[in-house]
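Figure 2 data, in text form.
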Amino acid sequence: LFLQSAHIRDEEVKQAVSAGQHRVESMALIHQKLYQRDNLAAVEMQDYFRNLANSLFDTFGMKDRARLKLDMEPLELDVDKAVPLGLIVNELITNSLKYAFPDGREGTIRVALKQEPGEGLVLEVEDDGVGAGDAAQGTAFGSQLVTLLSQQLGGHLVSGNQSPAGYNTRLVIGPKAG
Protein backbone atom coordinates (compact mmCIF):
# COMPACT_ATOMS: atom_id res chain seq x y z
CA LEU A 1 0.00 0.00 0.00
CA PHE A 2 2.83 2.39 0.83
CA LEU A 3 4.50 1.89 -2.54
CA GLN A 4 1.22 2.29 -4.40
CA SER A 5 0.26 5.43 -2.50
CA ALA A 6 3.40 7.21 -3.69
CA HIS A 7 1.97 7.29 -7.23
CA ILE A 8 -1.54 8.47 -6.36
CA ARG A 9 -2.35 12.05 -7.35
CA ASP A 10 -5.97 12.31 -6.14
CA GLU A 11 -5.82 13.56 -2.53
CA GLU A 12 -9.06 11.84 -1.49
CA VAL A 13 -7.87 8.48 -2.83
CA LYS A 14 -4.47 9.01 -1.21
CA GLN A 15 -6.15 9.59 2.18
CA ALA A 16 -8.27 6.45 1.78
CA VAL A 17 -5.19 4.34 0.97
CA SER A 18 -3.36 5.89 3.93
CA ALA A 19 -6.24 4.99 6.25
CA GLY A 20 -6.07 1.43 4.94
CA GLN A 21 -2.34 1.37 5.67
CA HIS A 22 -2.98 2.38 9.28
CA ARG A 23 -5.56 -0.39 9.69
CA VAL A 24 -3.15 -2.99 8.32
CA GLU A 25 -0.36 -1.68 10.57
CA SER A 26 -2.69 -1.94 13.56
CA MET A 27 -3.26 -5.64 12.90
CA ALA A 28 0.41 -6.26 12.07
CA LEU A 29 1.41 -4.76 15.40
CA ILE A 30 -0.77 -7.29 17.22
CA HIS A 31 0.86 -10.15 15.35
CA GLN A 32 4.30 -8.76 16.14
CA LYS A 33 3.38 -8.61 19.84
CA LEU A 34 2.09 -12.18 19.77
CA TYR A 35 5.25 -13.57 18.20
CA GLN A 36 7.42 -11.83 20.80
CA ARG A 37 5.64 -13.60 23.66
CA ASP A 38 5.29 -17.13 24.92
CA ASN A 39 1.49 -16.84 24.99
CA LEU A 40 0.30 -16.66 21.38
CA ALA A 41 -3.36 -16.22 22.35
CA ALA A 42 -3.22 -13.00 24.40
CA VAL A 43 -2.09 -9.42 23.78
CA GLU A 44 -0.88 -7.01 26.48
CA MET A 45 -3.06 -4.01 25.65
CA GLN A 46 -1.22 -1.18 27.41
CA ASP A 47 1.98 -1.77 25.44
CA TYR A 48 -0.01 -2.40 22.25
CA PHE A 49 -1.96 0.87 22.52
CA ARG A 50 1.24 2.80 23.32
CA ASN A 51 3.00 1.44 20.22
CA LEU A 52 -0.08 1.98 18.05
CA ALA A 53 -0.49 5.59 19.20
CA ASN A 54 3.21 6.39 18.80
CA SER A 55 3.11 5.04 15.24
CA LEU A 56 0.09 7.23 14.43
CA PHE A 57 1.64 10.31 16.09
CA ASP A 58 4.73 9.77 13.96
CA THR A 59 2.74 9.23 10.75
CA PHE A 60 0.75 12.43 11.24
CA GLY A 61 3.81 14.44 12.34
CA MET A 62 2.19 15.16 15.71
CA LYS A 63 4.86 13.97 18.16
CA ASP A 64 5.67 17.56 19.15
CA ARG A 65 2.05 18.73 19.38
CA ALA A 66 0.03 15.83 20.78
CA ARG A 67 0.60 13.83 23.93
CA LEU A 68 -0.68 10.38 24.79
CA LYS A 69 -2.07 9.65 28.23
CA LEU A 70 -2.60 5.94 28.81
CA ASP A 71 -4.97 5.60 31.74
CA MET A 72 -4.80 1.86 32.21
CA GLU A 73 -3.03 -0.93 34.02
CA PRO A 74 -1.36 -3.78 32.14
CA LEU A 75 -4.19 -5.92 30.80
CA GLU A 76 -4.04 -9.03 28.62
CA LEU A 77 -6.89 -9.79 26.24
CA ASP A 78 -7.40 -12.61 23.78
CA VAL A 79 -6.82 -11.88 20.11
CA ASP A 80 -10.56 -11.97 19.33
CA LYS A 81 -11.01 -8.83 21.46
CA ALA A 82 -7.58 -7.25 20.92
CA VAL A 83 -7.83 -6.97 17.11
CA PRO A 84 -11.19 -5.14 16.96
CA LEU A 85 -10.24 -2.94 19.94
CA GLY A 86 -6.97 -2.06 18.20
CA LEU A 87 -8.81 -1.10 15.02
CA ILE A 88 -11.28 1.01 17.01
CA VAL A 89 -8.48 2.82 18.86
CA ASN A 90 -6.65 3.30 15.54
CA GLU A 91 -9.72 5.02 14.02
CA LEU A 92 -10.40 7.19 17.07
CA ILE A 93 -6.80 8.37 17.51
CA THR A 94 -6.59 9.04 13.77
CA ASN A 95 -9.70 11.24 13.96
CA SER A 96 -8.27 13.14 16.93
CA LEU A 97 -4.95 13.71 15.19
CA LYS A 98 -6.66 14.88 11.99
CA TYR A 99 -9.33 17.13 13.47
CA ALA A 100 -8.87 17.97 17.17
CA PHE A 101 -5.72 20.07 16.97
CA PRO A 102 -5.91 22.43 13.97
CA ASP A 103 -3.61 25.37 13.24
CA GLY A 104 -0.69 24.11 15.30
CA ARG A 105 -2.78 23.59 18.43
CA GLU A 106 -1.33 21.22 21.05
CA GLY A 107 -3.29 18.72 23.07
CA THR A 108 -3.65 15.37 24.74
CA ILE A 109 -5.31 12.15 23.66
CA ARG A 110 -6.33 9.90 26.55
CA VAL A 111 -6.85 6.17 26.07
CA ALA A 112 -8.28 4.10 28.92
CA LEU A 113 -9.14 0.41 29.00
CA LYS A 114 -10.32 -1.06 32.29
CA GLN A 115 -12.33 -3.91 33.74
CA GLU A 116 -15.06 -2.05 35.64
CA PRO A 117 -17.03 -4.00 38.27
CA GLY A 118 -20.63 -4.36 37.14
CA GLU A 119 -19.94 -2.84 33.71
CA GLY A 120 -17.39 -5.15 32.11
CA LEU A 121 -14.62 -3.97 29.84
CA VAL A 122 -14.69 -0.20 29.26
CA LEU A 123 -12.70 1.58 26.54
CA GLU A 124 -12.52 5.37 26.47
CA VAL A 125 -10.71 7.50 23.93
CA GLU A 126 -10.89 11.26 24.37
CA ASP A 127 -9.05 14.37 23.33
CA ASP A 128 -8.97 17.93 24.64
CA GLY A 129 -9.15 19.43 21.17
CA VAL A 130 -11.67 21.70 19.50
CA GLY A 131 -14.56 19.23 19.61
CA ALA A 132 -16.37 17.74 16.67
CA GLY A 133 -17.95 19.74 13.93
CA ASP A 134 -19.27 18.15 10.77
CA ALA A 135 -15.78 17.62 9.31
CA ALA A 136 -14.42 16.15 12.52
CA GLN A 137 -16.73 13.15 12.40
CA GLY A 138 -14.16 11.41 10.24
CA THR A 139 -14.85 9.37 7.16
CA ALA A 140 -18.15 7.62 6.83
CA PHE A 141 -16.21 4.37 6.46
CA GLY A 142 -14.15 4.99 9.60
CA SER A 143 -17.25 5.77 11.65
CA GLN A 144 -19.05 2.73 10.26
CA LEU A 145 -16.03 0.56 11.02
CA VAL A 146 -16.00 1.69 14.67
CA THR A 147 -19.74 1.01 14.96
CA LEU A 148 -19.50 -2.43 13.32
CA LEU A 149 -16.50 -3.49 15.42
CA SER A 150 -18.30 -2.32 18.57
CA GLN A 151 -21.30 -4.46 17.60
CA GLN A 152 -19.00 -7.40 16.84
CA LEU A 153 -17.69 -7.13 20.41
CA GLY A 154 -21.25 -6.96 21.76
CA GLY A 155 -20.60 -3.47 23.05
CA HIS A 156 -22.50 -0.23 23.52
CA LEU A 157 -20.85 2.82 21.93
CA VAL A 158 -21.43 6.47 22.89
CA SER A 159 -19.55 9.42 21.33
CA GLY A 160 -19.83 13.16 21.52
CA ASN A 161 -18.39 16.53 22.42
CA GLN A 162 -17.43 17.05 26.03
CA SER A 163 -17.36 20.19 28.13
CA PRO A 164 -15.52 22.53 27.98
CA ALA A 165 -13.77 21.17 24.86
CA GLY A 166 -12.78 17.96 23.18
CA TYR A 167 -14.38 14.75 22.06
CA ASN A 168 -15.04 11.50 23.94
CA THR A 169 -15.90 7.98 22.83
CA ARG A 170 -16.87 5.31 25.35
CA LEU A 171 -17.38 1.64 24.54
CA VAL A 172 -18.74 -0.75 27.17
CA ILE A 173 -18.35 -4.49 26.52
CA GLY A 174 -19.95 -6.68 29.12
CA PRO A 175 -22.96 -7.15 31.35
CA LYS A 176 -24.18 -3.54 30.98
CA ALA A 177 -23.29 -3.14 27.29
CA GLY A 178 -26.88 -3.10 26.08
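Caption note: The two ends are 38 Å apart (CA to CA).
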